[in-house]
Amino acid sequence: AQSVAQPEDQVNVAEGNPLTVKCTYSVSGNPYLFWYVQYPNRGLQFLLKYITGDNLVKGSYGFEAEFNKSQTSFHLKKPSALVSDSALYFCAVRDIGTGRRALTFGSGTRLQVQP
Amino acid sequence: ETGVTQTPRHLVMGMTNKKSLKCEQHLGHNAMYWYKQSAKKPLELMFVYNFKEQTENNSVPSRFSPECPNSSHLFLHLHTLQPEDSALYLCASSLVQVNGELFFGEGSRLTVL
């Protein structure tokens, strides 16, 4: 079975500082990995994905994530946080070997960026 | 109109009511999904439809009844719900042939009294 862990319920960072939101995954085969963001009273918006190739992937709004196969991690990063980045962030995985198209999500990490 | 549209955005119902949630996608996708989002819990996959056929039902109670009349529309029929069913219900769509991301609607916030 596939699973995702987001070990931090909340991450606090000052505006202008770098941010990291952690994600680890478990799959039996090879993973496709995704990050989504959710603003209050909204649905999930896609940020970026790792399918294959370069381990560092870049996405929307200046976010990037690094795929680390040995540590089974896919941490979300941004060099300089903005107050407007404050939101709920979800990591998700799809196990390529299963043929399933549905994503398995983590429990989410709330990012709070202080001015 | 583009993307994935969910109606109603908010719904309050009693435990004996019957109501339905509607999802429509304008992206030309052929797979549709229902997820349940409760506070401080991972998103729970409920149902998956590929080309109008149900391919996954993750042990969802029968008081939730999905319907997918075509690849663009997905319904979730609700009856005799419990207060613990109160949550945000999210619809998503994707292309079966592409191993890419899911596209989500804004969600329907359900409150069961």
Head-to-tail CA distance between termini of chain A: 41 Å
What is the element string of chain A, with H for helices and E for strands? Answer: EEEEEEEEEEEE
Mean pLDDT of chain A, to the nearest integer, reads: 94
- The share of residues in helices of chain B is under 10%
Shape of chain A: globular
Q: What is the number of beta strands of chain B?
A: 11
Count the E strands of chain A.
Answer: 12
Report the average pLDDT across residues of chain B.
93
Backbone structural class of chain B: mainly beta
Strand % of chain A is over 45%
Which H/E pattern describes the elements of chain B? EEEEEEEEEEE
Q: How much strand content do the residues of chain B show?
A: over 45%
> Over the alpha carbons, how many angstroms does the gyration radius of chain A reach?
14 Å
Helical stretch tally of chain B: 0
Structural features, described:
The complex is a heterodimer of chains A (115) and B (113). Chain A has 115 residues and is mainly beta. Helices cover 0% and strands 52% of the residues of chain A. In chain A, strands 2, 5, 6, 10, 11 and 12 form a 6-stranded mixed sheet that branches. In chain A, strands 3-9-8-7 form a 4-stranded antiparallel sheet, with no helix packed on it. In chain A, β7 and β8 form a beta hairpin. The relative contact order of chain A is 0.34. Chain B contains no helices and 11 strands. Helices cover 0% and strands 57% of the residues of chain B. The interface between A and B is medium-sized, with 25 and 27 residues.
